[in-house]
């Protein structure tokens, strides 16, 4: 089997989610094809899906070193660095991806995640909105709704999530979680005395699980 066929088979396997078998397959593929940046990238994706974030960073750094023009490798490296809370490193990796393709919706979505991690919710919302405008992807819509909720625009966030529920391709668990958060926030606001913000504990609940659904592990061919 050619390296291209092996890479295609691995990418298809990874589309089904976390898999120790896929990670083993990716690791073996890297050993057979040590100069393949795409093999290193897909191994990094497999590790990310298994939440082995530090190992993923190493694999994805190797991919970018083997192929500095590999857009998806830089994008996935930014995801891995965000996962290990290396905000500065994630910004550098994302900057490299954006230089290669500044308008790609996956890069814009990742930019939203970075800006959100940096605490710039307005910039995060703009990036997510740009990504959504291009693709109408439910993941981008949910990310935008999550930011709107953090900004306190509960009605807009709830309306957006309800619209996503009509999309059969939407991630159902994440959509249901965000809708529950929006409704809990709305209920908390209604119960609070006029002019008082929701409690700190409620704010922490709402922001404890940022979604960042779309653009994390794009299966873009190298």
Beta strands, count: 0
Portion in helices: over 70%
Q: What would you call the shape? A: globular
Cα-atom Rg, whole angstroms?
19 Å
Give the biggest sheet: none
pLDDT averaged residue by residue: 85
Query: Termini, distance in Å?
Result: 18 Å
Beta-strand percentage range: under 5%
- What structural class do helix, strand and pairing data support? mainly alpha
What are the segments in which pLDDT stays under 50 over at least 5 consecutive residues?
194-222
- Succession of helices and strands: HHHHHHHHHHHH
Given the structure, what is the number of helices? 12
Structure described in brief:
The protein is mainly alpha-helical and 222 residues long.
3D structure, described in words:
By secondary structure, the chain is an all-alpha fold. Helix content is 72%, strand content 0%. The protein has helices at 3-14, 20-32, 37-49, 53-66, 71-83, 87-100, 105-117, 121-135, 138-151, 154-164, 172-191, 200-207. α9 packs antiparallel against α10 (154-164) and α11 runs antiparallel to α12. Mean pLDDT is 85; it is low at 194-222.
């Amino acid at each position: 089997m050619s390296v291209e066929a092996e890479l295609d088979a691995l990418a298809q396997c990874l589309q089904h989610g976390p898999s120790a078998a896929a990670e083993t397959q990716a690791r073996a593929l890297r050993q057979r094809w040590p100069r393949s940046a795409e093999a290193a990238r897909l191994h990094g994706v497999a590790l990310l899906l298994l939440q082995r974030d530090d190992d993923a960073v190493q694999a994805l750094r190797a991919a970018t070193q083997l192929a500095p023009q590999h857009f998806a490798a830089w994008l996935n490296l930014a995801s891995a660095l965000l996962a290990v809370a290396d905000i500065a490193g994630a910004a550098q990796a994302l900057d490299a991806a954006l230089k290669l393709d500044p308008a790609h919706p996956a890069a814009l979505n990742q930019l939203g995640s970075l800006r959100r991690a940096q605490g710039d919710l307005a910039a995060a919302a703009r990036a997510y909105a740009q990504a959504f405008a291009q693709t109408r992807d439910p993941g981008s819509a949910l990310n935008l709704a999550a930011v709107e909720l953090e900004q306190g625009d509960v009605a807009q966030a709830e309306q957006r999530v309800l619209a996503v529920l009509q999309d059969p391709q939407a991630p159902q668990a994440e959509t249901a979680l965000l809708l529950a958060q929006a409704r809990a926030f709305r209920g908390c606001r209604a119960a609070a005395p006029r002019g008082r913000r929701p409690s700190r504990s409620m704010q922490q609940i709402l922001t404890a699980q940022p979604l960042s659904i779309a653009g994390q592990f794009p299966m873009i061919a190298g």
